[in-house]
Fold each of these.
Amino acid sequence: MPMLHVERHGRILDEEARDIVSFLEECYDRLRPVGLDIVEIVLFENDRLWHSYMAAERRRAGVTSSDIDAAFIAAHDAWTGIPRISIPLDRRKALAQPVWEGALHHEAGHSILHGSLEYYVFPMPKALANVAHEFRTLTSHLTDILYLLTVAVKDLEVTDLLVSNGYVEDQAAYARFVMKPTEEDQYAWDLSSITAEARVLCLVGKLKDIAAATVLASRSQCPRVGLEEIEDSIRYLPREARTALLDTTTKILNDLGKDTFANIQSGAAVLVARLIGPIMRCPASHELS
Ligand SMILES: [Zn+2]
């Protein structure tokens, strides 16, 4: 079991901090990670303190990928080389208990599978470099596409680990929360109809939202989330785009092995073959419902 080092920002009761620590300890105790010595747990009184802390940490580490998603409940990173879970405690009140627990387990899963710096800096997979060679307009978006793909692959791995160890109810609640479409999703898609590469980016960004749900839907022994629920969550997309998105996520999941780096390479090949290639070659087919 790793040592949990707790840091607090703002007014946080001792009891609240102890609750979080013992909740996470149960998870590490169940998953029995090998070679994980220490995890930093950084607690924040509120969202505002969390965002400003993370923004400063991002600058310090030279992280260029986009800021924390407003929908995130908590986050994991290893920018300093040490796995770190950051949690704003004021989010808790607004969430159903299983969603909150699912999110904490999710971040603990990241610390086990992706708890070092190398999981935050990935080399560009060949398949992505090749497709940008074919479609030059993709070149300036490659780093974003890779980032979004790596986040989705890592979420598939984490959910697979947690569900395999019996965290099913909370992961199903968390998966439903994450895939719930927002008004911004619809808006982003409407805006992205301008260019094929904007549509690619928009869809690659959705991979992560349906990743956890896809793992739960793929397991016959625990059908806690149905495929049709996932499809409903992306109903605002044209049928071709929905199918491409579901196909891509399912295929990446089916190909998953133990090695994250290999998973990202094979995930990139699937992404290019099933989603990026078809949209870039025939943009019109993804425009209509
Ligand atoms: Zn995640």
Note: The chain has two domains: 3-118, 125-286.
Amino acid sequence: MGSSLEKESKISKTSVLTEAEKEQFIQHGWVKIEGAFTEEQAAWVTQDVWTRLGMAPDNKSTWNQERVHMPGHRTFDCAKLAPRAWAAICEICGGEDKVRPESRYWQDSLIVNLGTVENEGKPVPPQQLYGWHVDGDFFVHYLDSAEQGLLVIPLFTDIVPDGGGTVICPEAMPKVAAWLHDHPEGVNPRMIPRGEPGFEKEGPTDWFNSMARSCTNFVEAGGKCGDVYLLHPLMLHSASTNPLRRKGQTLYSGGARNVKSPRKGKPTKLEDHCAKGDGGTRESAQAGENEGGRTGTSAKGYSGHRCMRT
Ligand SMILES: O=C(O)CCC(=O)C(=O)O
Ligand SMILES: [Fe+2]
């Protein structure tokens, strides 16, 4: 009895996630870690963002792009900025030793959703969004691909409903997984199986968009500055149109980051399979080739793509 209690308390000491958070992740494939960093820390990350954008937060006439994926110029340690989020990431992945070390370092490569004049005040139903995808535009996808362990969305400003948060579709996740399961030969980043027409091309995101159109349950990844969403890597998601376009607040900075987990499969570089046109084998890919994958390896037929580039 005593020893089993001891064991339990040891487990709860090392577990950073509450039972409710664990249940949430297991049932829905996502969990929000609230208050993982402070507004002050967020302000350090976003300090010069409007200068970098060349826009003014309170003057919408300067907002001349719908969405901006900013390049990163400062790197910081997530374990210091958001220790609870980092601990939760490690816990979900099965321990820090299961996470590639570079996943710990985040950058100010913020995503800024400014919306458009045309879409202002006109919320778009999630099924009609056009940016649905599963991350990973730089590799051939298998059910056990190692390139992604978790998708992480830290909020560097408050994000109110209809205020530009990423929309996620947990309902699609098992369907994406089933597709990968049924295609052990691998699929391209648009889910086209190897050997089918279009596998070697970037092509449209039809598979994802029609998947979203068949779904009914969606979640907007909103919340308070300092919240961090942890999402299953097969989570279908899309940028939203930000119908509110709130001045100043419109800067939502949900930098999507992929935690890479050395799971069963070796990293599989897309160009090994496509650009050379030889349908190379999975085993021929070298582990670790995709380090820094966010900007990704730009393989022939997949270059210049922005939205799926994590
Ligand atoms: O802009 C967003 O809300 C989502 C961005 C995204 O999904 C990505 O960069 O992969
Ligand atoms: Fe994405």
Note: The two ends are 48 Å apart (CA to CA).
